[in-house]
Design a protein that fits this description.
Blueprint lengths: L3 E7 L6 H15 L2 H8 L6 E8 L5 E10 L2 H12 L11 H13 L8 E7 L9 H10 L2 E7 L15 H9 L16 H13 L24 H9 L9
Parallel strand pairs: 1-2, 1-4, 4-5
Antiparallel strand pairs: 2-3
Length: 246
């Protein structure tokens, strides 16, 4: 396999039912797109392994797509059909660290040999439950896993007070990591399917990416980023959501 890819999809209650629907349909459309199939066909082995689960709190990981090989349009269409045959259910809290940990467990038991192991994690807010996200990230990187991000910079769902304005920077500083790690922000739900499609193409085609040009190192002094911001926001405001938590 060119890549063993874990798609970890946020279904925390900070997202509305409509957003959950758009997310499902966006992943289905992207996986079955000609652009993604073309990227697969250009790989060394011309096949990838994919699994998809939905996550929220650190005890919620619902498998939607078990490990599946995609090497043809029929394979991709079958995965898309499975996604569209069901619907997502919102769950309380947001544990990005739990999602990374579960993704790492799936990659440790993947039944196929793959050149690269990648966790592709989406989310619309910072970690507010479980171990610190940086600990989960670093543990996964030590296992040779790359973590890419799809931060959703939207504010239409329930409990938007738990969102942060610079979620893309949070993902860059605290979530993604490993060889070639990157993130693709989503600023509007109308962009979602295109963002997922572009991200999958970049991930699948990473092996073909030429070596970057050598650029002289530059020292830039900047304030350290607080990767515990989500936990701190929850401590301040979470008491309001004892029954219905994001």
């Amino acid at each position: 396999m060119d890549i063993a890819l874990v798609l970890a999809v946020d279904v925390s209650r900070s997202m509305s039912l409509e957003e959950l629907r758009i997310q499902r349909e966006g992943y289905a459309a992207a996986i079955a797109s000609q652009e993604v199939l073309r990227a697969i066909g250009q790989g060394a082995y011309r096949r990838i392994a994919v699994t998809l689960f939905e996550w929220a709190n650190n005890s919620h990981a619902r498998e939607i797509i078990a490990w599946t090989i995609i090497e043809s349009q029929a394979d991709a269409d079958a995965v898309a059909a499975t996604l569209l045959a069901d619907r997502s259910y919102g769950q309380r809290r947001t544990s990005i660290s739990g999602a990374i940990g579960h993704g790492a467990e799936l990659l440790a038991t993947v039944p196929y040999r793959a050149d690269r192991h990648v966790i592709d994690i989406s989310g619309d807010g910072p970690n507010n439950q479980g171990i610190p996200v940086t600990e989960a990230r670093d543990a996964a990187i030590e296992q040779g896993i790359t973590i890419n991000g799809l931060p959703m910079m939207t504010r239409d769902g329930f409990a938007s007070q738990f969102h942060i304005d610079d979620l893309d920077r949070y993902y860059t500083k605290c979530v993604i990591g490993g060889p070639g790690a990157f993130m693709v922000p989503v600023n509007d739900w109308e962009q979602f399917a295109e963002a997922v499609r572009r991200k999958l193409v970049l991930e699948i085609g990473a092996a073909e990416t030429p070596a970057p040009k050598v650029i002289p190192a530059q020292f830039v002094l900047e304030e350290p980023y607080d990767c515990l911001i989500g936990e701190k926001i929850w401590q301040q405001r979470g008491w309001q959501f004892d029954e219905v938590n994001p």
